[in-house]
Automatic annotation (TrEMBL):
Coiled-coil ranges (or none): 113-151, 318-345, 377-411
Protein name, per record: Tektin
Biological processes, Gene Ontology terms: cilium assembly; cilium movement involved in cell motility
Keyword Protease in record: no
Compartments in which it is found: Cytoplasm, Cytoskeleton, Cilium axoneme
Cellular component GO terms held in the UniProt record: axoneme; microtubule cytoskeleton; nucleus
Keywords carried by this UniProt record: Cell projection, Cilium, Coiled coil, Cytoplasm, Flagellum
Family: Belongs to the tektin family.
Length: 465
């Protein structure tokens, strides 16, 4: 029987006893009266103890209650012994199995940490190799960046020299356009290489951070691995086991296994992503260097071609102007002779006009009826009109010839000035082209050329070179 049943049985017995006592007390006045009656009726005086008396059913109920209580206590003792033996066996078995399972869990945990440790150590070694390779690529890019100073200087000097051309030759020709384009290409290459170097520097810093996190994680895993191994070797016979103040407390920094696994995966993924980006960045550095070198080389060839073409065009224009100047000087000489002849003709026409006008004016003084409009008068008037028209035409032609002569002279002066400008421009372009000879790559011959083409220069000792 359990404890609840025992308590209910005791409560039931107590209720029965109390009911019996109440019935007895209710009967006491009657019994007192009977006693008094007995005292008055009988000759022998008897007295009863002034305490409640039990009836026979109450006495039987009390005896039954004591019997039930004894049986209950014996049953409880039997159940207690049986449950205690069962509990001892269960706790012993549970303790042994818990110890066995926890040892297996510790072994699995040690194995898992060792696997993660080896994975992170491999990532750390790979990270060191990638960092060294990235630093080498960054140094090569910086050297390439320094070599761009010469093209910038030569290009700016070429533009400055060509800006010294005179007004008639200060044009936006193809050579000037290609020079400016070469300057833009050089500046863009420089900016591209600077951006790549900056990206490499930032990437190296991020790799340093990742390396620090990996080292910190590896140190934590080494320490945790040592603690788990020590706890795996610990048993109940060891000397350094004691009671602890609060062994079930949860540390503030404790996380769940899922969170720990997520952090490990995140660390691994972070390192792998950075390594993958590092490979792409090294490739981009190499591609940027080669692209900058090839683009600049192609633009330099185009610029040199345009400079040579501009020199050729300037020489051709100079030769054309020299021929034009020579022809114009010949025409000016011829036009001078023609002007002299036309001037003589004009003077003759003026004298003839004076003669005709004098005749016509003088005949106007004829007296009387002799002042008639005869054929002579009509002829003189027609002659005056014709001479004035001839003089007007000759004057116009003389003015036109003089204007033509002045135009030829002005054009000759302009041609002479333009010719001087072209001579100066030709000298400037030739000097700029000679200055750009410094940009021509070194022509390798023989073994050096083969080593550069095969990209094995660093693998051959310098003495063999």
């Amino acid at each position: 029987m359990d404890e609840n049943q025992i308590l209910e049985e005791e409560a039931r017995n107590s209720i029965l006893i109390e009911n019996n006592q109440q019935e007895t007390e209710c009967c006491l006045p009657e019994k007192s009266a009977q006693c008094q009656a007995t005292i008055y009726d009988e000759s022998v005086v008897t007295y009863e103890k002034p305490l409640p008396h039990l009836s026979l059913p109450d006495w039987d109920a009390r005896l039954y209650g004591l019997q039930v209580t004894a049986d209950t206590r014996r049953a409880d003792a039997f159940d207690l012994r049986h449950s205690a033996r069962q509990l001892r066996n269960e706790t012993r078995i549970k303790t042994e199995w818990d110890s066995y399972h926890n040892n297996n869990r510790l072994r699995a945990r040690v194995y898992e940490i060792e696997q993660w440790k080896s994975t992170l150590q491999a990532l750390l070694n790979r990270l060191d190799r990638e960092m060294n390779a990235l630093k080498e690529e960054k140094a090569s890019t910086e050297r390439e960046l320094e070599q761009l100073n010469l093209p910038l200087l030569v290009c700016s000097e070429s533009l400055s020299n060509r800006d010294g051309r005179r007004s008639s030759e200060l044009t936006y020709d193809l050579a000037d356009t290609e020079l400016k384009k070469e300057l833009c290409v050089t500046e863009s290459n420089k900016k591209l290489l600077i951006d790549r170097c900056q990206s490499a520097w930032e990437k190296i810093n991020r790799l340093e951070v990742v390396k620090f996190k990996l080292q910190l994680d590896l140190n934590d895993k080494n320490e945790a691995l040592q603690i788990d191994k020590d706890m795996l070797n610990l048993d109940k016979d060891c000397a350094n086991i004691t009671y602890k103040t609060d062994p079930l407390k949860t540390p503030k920094r404790m996380i769940t296994y899922e969170q720990w696994l997520e952090k490990c995966e995140a660390t691994k993924k972070m390192a792998e992503d950075e390594l993958q980006d590092t490979l792409h960045l090294r490739e981009s550095l190499f591609v940027a260097r080669e692209r900058a070198r090839n683009t600049l080389r192609a633009q330099t060839d185009v610029t040199n071609y345009m400079m040579r073409r501009r020199i050729y065009d300037t020489q051709r224009a100079r030769n054309e102007l020299q021929w034009q100047k020579m022809k114009m000087e010949e025409n000016m000489d011829k036009l001078t002779a023609e002007l002299k002849i036309m001037g003589e003709q004009f003077a003759d026409k003026v004298n003839a006009l004076k003669v005709a006008e004098t005749r016509l004016e003088t005949r106007g003084y004829r007296p009387g009826i002799e002042l008639a409009s005869d054929e002579a008068d009509l002829g003189l008037k027609e002659e005056v009109h014709n001479l004035k028209e001839s003089i007007r035409q000759l004057q116009e032609k003389l003015d036109c010839a003089k204007a033509t002569y002045n135009a030829l002279e002005a054009a000759s002066i302009k041609i002479a000035l333009d010719l001087n400008d072209k001579e100066h421009s030709l000298e400037t372009d030739i000097r700029a082209l000679e200055m750009r000879a410094a940009l021509e790559p070194k022509r390798l011959q023989g073994l050096e050329r083969n080593l550069v083409l095969a990209r094995i220069t660093d693998e051959v000792p310098k003495m063999e070179m």
